[in-house]
Fold this sequence. Notes:
297 residues, D-Maltodextrin-Binding Protein, domain 2, 9 strands, 43% helix, elongated, transcription regulation
Amino acid sequence: MLTIKQLQAFYWVARLGTLNRAAEKLHITQSAVTKRLQEVEAAAAGPLFEEDRRRRQLTRLGREFEAECERLFDRLQALENLKRSGAPPARVFKVGLTEVVALTWFPDFLKRMKALYPSIIVQPEIDLSLTLHEKVERGALDFAILPDHRPSEGVVKLGVGDVKFGWFSAPGMFAPDAVHPLQALAEKPVIEQSAHSVITLVCGRIWESAGLRPDRIYGGNNIQALAGLVAAGVGIGCLPVQLFRSELRAGSLALVKTSVPAPTVAYACYFPHYPDSPLGREVAEVARQSSTFVRRG
């Protein structure tokens, strides 16, 4: 494996063009520079310099090698500066979440995390819950805030609250004061997220238990886009009530009263179980304090 001193010899010969100038820069003899440069060239996958007696010109491979050396030296300098400052290195903390969390209380969660853990950089990833569950289980995420799901061995689950869903329609599609049976809703197209969405699976079980088979339209995985289709009268949708209160007040969406209530989905925090690290539980407590979802008990 090449050493930093060998790479420095190559880098300064490449930058300054001659062995003599590189030796002066590094405060070593020209013969020492020559020896280190020969060792670098012997380890390289091809020639690093063109044949030129007056000035050493880099080959294409040499230019790529020089750029990599520069990035390495920049990183080493940053680490040295960090060591001198005494500041702890920043840690990237990958958090998975669904769109419902992202559009409600996640900004407050980020503010609290920054205040409590200034050396942690929270990196959010928004996706379908089943995809994020799988990433937590294989260690690709440090933490996730998702609909309730039985975790695999080695994953901790802590509840964070419930999300109440409701059946939404365009204004005027249903009588606002009447209570409507599921059969009436099933006469309209149902706009849903993908088949892997938790709320789609839950609603599917509701239709199945009632013996109903409405036309089910895939409207994408963007909740705001689904709400737009519902508001346009394309069909009905099962949406989180908290997220669309302003649209209900403005009259662009209507909440349909039904004989069978829309589902309530429990949400929880998930994180790998590390006995020697309490961070997961501490972040879960931050999530509980930030959450605007309904608490049980």
